[in-house]
Each structure stands twice: as structure tokens, then as C-alpha cells.
Amino acid sequence: MRLVVGISGASGAIYGVRTLEALHSLGVEVHLVLSETAKKTIEFETDYRVENVCAMASQVYDNRDLGAAISSGSFRVSGMIVAPCSVKTLAGIANSFNSELLTRAADVQLKERRKLVLLVRETPLHLGHIQHMLNVTHMGGIILPPVPSFYHLPKTIDDIVNQSVQKALDQFDLDANLFERWKGMNNQDMGGETCHL
């Protein structure tokens, strides 16, 4: 499988880094594009260096290179994940404003009817944000905010991050086994004693 991964400058750079780690471990061919702000956010928010992040990809592109392979629909990929997806990137995608490679690559997925998964990282949301998400959804994109679940009883920030990343990978039928899946209330180990009334 071949996927495009975009990392924008929104807070939550670890979502993009963990996505790359998971795809690398699965042997997926990854074509990576980072915004300039993403590079700064990676080094500000995580213990990773940009060079180490880029080393997990099969190919890395300059966000200013609108002539890159991933800017064309003739370059065959299974789809794209943008993690995290800033509101600026969301707005660019929602309005087909392709001034950068990241938004152009996302636009290509939509026009070719391939999967585009956006881990939109913003809260609270105003009507403009919601309208952009609606527009992307109408065009076939998948809005997947990194909203944590707690049924798998996360103990660390990594546990929370992993669950959202696996949800994104699920959209491509990829299982990196990043969290304990829900098995139904009666089959989960909920811990503690049963309360009898």
C-alpha cells in the first residue's frame, strides 16, 4: 500500500509522528509533506527531530513544490491522512485553495475519489469551522477529530494518541494493534466488583 501523510502546524504533532511510526511498522510506503509550521511544532511539542520524523517516510516533499508527484492524480496512492489538520489546512482543502503541496495533495484525493482522512485539531468550533468540515464531508473527505475514548482505560498520553491514530488507520483497513478494541460491555474487563442492589 502507498499512502500520503500530511502534517500541518496545528498542536498535536504527535498524531502525525505516531501515524508515521505505525505505517512504517506495517511496511506501508509513505509519501510525506510537512508544512513549515509543522516542523516547528514537532520540535516544540515532542522529543523528535524533524530529520528523524522524515526518516520514517519513503519520500519527503517540500510543501512549496506544487510539481511534486503527489500533486497529480496520475500518481497512484490509496489515500491520504492529515494528522493533525489545522483549521488553515482544513479551510484550504474545503475551498480547493491549492497554494501549498499539502492542500493540493489533499485536493487530489478528493478529485480522484480516494480516501482523505483529516484529524482536525481545534476547539471550540465556530460556524466557519463547521462549514468547512461540512464542505469536505460533502466532497467525500472523512473528518476524524482526535477525540479520545476511555473504554480502553488509557493510562498514558500515548494510549490516548494511539487510539485516535488507529481509528485513522482503520479507514484504510490497517491494523497496527495500537489499542484494546471494544468487545461489548459483557466481554470487557471492567475491573472492580459488581454492584448488587
Can you describe what's shown?
The protein has 197 residues and is an alpha/beta fold. It has a single domain, classed as Rossmann fold (3-Layer(aba) Sandwich). It is built from seven helices and six strands, in the order E-H-E-H-H-E-E-H-H-E-H-E-H. The protein has a six-stranded parallel beta sheet with strand order 3-2-1-4-5-6, with helices on both faces. Strand 1, helix 1 and strand 2 form a beta-alpha-beta unit.
CATH class: Alpha Beta
**Count of helix runs:** 7
Please identify the structural class as seen in this structure. Answer: alpha/beta
Number of strands: 6
Rg from Cα: 17 Å
The residue-averaged pLDDT reads 95
- Order of the strands making up the biggest sheet: 3-2-1-4-5-6
Unreliable residue runs? none
Q: State the end-to-end CA separation.
A: 53 Å
- The percent of residues in helical segments reads 25-40%
Helices and strands, in order, run as: EHEHHEEHHEHEH
Major β-sheet annotation:
6 strands, parallel
CATH architecture: 3-Layer(aba) Sandwich
What percentage of amino acids are in beta strands? 15-25%
Pfam families: Flavoprotein
GO molecular function, one term: carboxy-lyase activity
Family: Belongs to the UbiX/PAD1 family.
Binding site for FMN: 9-11, 35, 86-89, 121
